[in-house]
C-alpha cells in the first residue's frame, strides 16, 4: 500500500492560488466601491453577506446529490456508496460554514441598520431552520453509534434540502423585514452598476473557495474511510491468522 | 492607521469590520483545521 501524500496536488495548489488572488481582488473591490447614499460604509457588509447567504443555497443541493447517490449505490456498489457518503458529509459541513457566516454577517448588518440583532421574519426564520437542519445532520454523524449512520443521514439530507427553495423564495412570497431580492426581484431590484464588479468578484471568489474547501474535506473523509477499512482488514487478518494457533494451544 | 488609503477609510464602520473579521476567522480557521487533520491522517 503506497504512503498517502501529505501535500496538495499541483491542480489544487493552482486553484488555491487563483482563489486567494480572487479573494484579495474581491476585498479591494469591496473597499473601493462607491459609498452608498443612505447606509454609508455599512452597506459594504453586503459584499460578504450576499455571497455567503446565496451560496448557502448551493451546498445543500450537493449534499442532496451525495445523499441520493449513497442510497442508489448502497446495495449496488459499496465503494461508490462510500464516496457519495463522504461527498454528502463534506457538503453538509460547507453548508454549515457558509450559513453560519450568512447569519453572522446578516445579524451584524441588521444590528447596525435596523437596530436589532434578530427578528422572526420569514427569510431569517427559514434560514435559521436551514442552519439548524445541517447542524443536526452533522450532530447525527458525530454522535450516532449506529451501523446505519450513513443511511439515516442520507434520509435527513433529503428532507433538509426541502427547506432550501422555501428559504430562497421566502423574500418573494412574504414581504416582511428582510429586503426584497437585490437580483432578479423585478423592475425595482438591482444595484448601482459601479458596485457590480465588487459583488461579482466576491461571489465567484467565495464560490471558488467553497469548492476548494469542499474538495479538501472530501479528500480528508475518503482518506479516513480508507484508514478505517485498512484497520478493519488488518484486524480480520490478525484474527484469522491467530485463531488456529489459539485452538492448537487449547488442545 | 492609514485612514486616508481608500480600503482603510471605508473600514471606519465597526460592524463592517466585525463582519469581515468573522468571515476571515471562520473561513481560514476552518481551512487550517482541515490542514491539521490532513497532516495527522
Give your account of this protein's structure.
The complex is a heterodimer of chains A (251) and B (41). Helix content of chain A is 73%, strand content 0%. Chain A has 251 residues and is mostly helical. The model of chain A has no long low-confidence stretch (mean pLDDT 89). Chain B is an all-alpha fold. Helix content of chain B is 76%, strand content 0%. Chain B has two helices and no strands. Chain B is rod-shaped, with a radius of gyration of 15 Å. Chain B starts with 5 loop residues before the first helix and ends with a helix. At the A-B interface, α1, α2, α4 and α8 of A face α2 of B.
Tell me the greatest interface: A-B, 33 and 23 residues
Content-based structural category of chain A:
mainly alpha
Helix content bin of chain B: over 70%
Integer-rounded radius of gyration of chain B:
15 Å
Round the Cα radius of gyration of chain A to an integer and report it.
Answer: 23 Å
Oligomer: heterodimer
Distance N terminus to C terminus of chain B?
Answer: 42 Å
**How much is the average pLDDT of chain B?**
80
Q: Segments of chain A where pLDDT lies below 50 for 5+ residues?
A: none
Order of helices and strands of chain A: HHHHHHHH
What's the overall geometry of chain A?
Answer: elongated
Number of helices of chain B: 2
List the helices and strands and how they pair.
The complex is a heterodimer of chains A (251) and B (41).
Chain A: H1 10-32, H2 46-55, H3 59-73, H4 78-113, H5 122-143, H6 149-160, H7 163-173, H8 196-250
Chain B: H1 6-9, H2 14-40
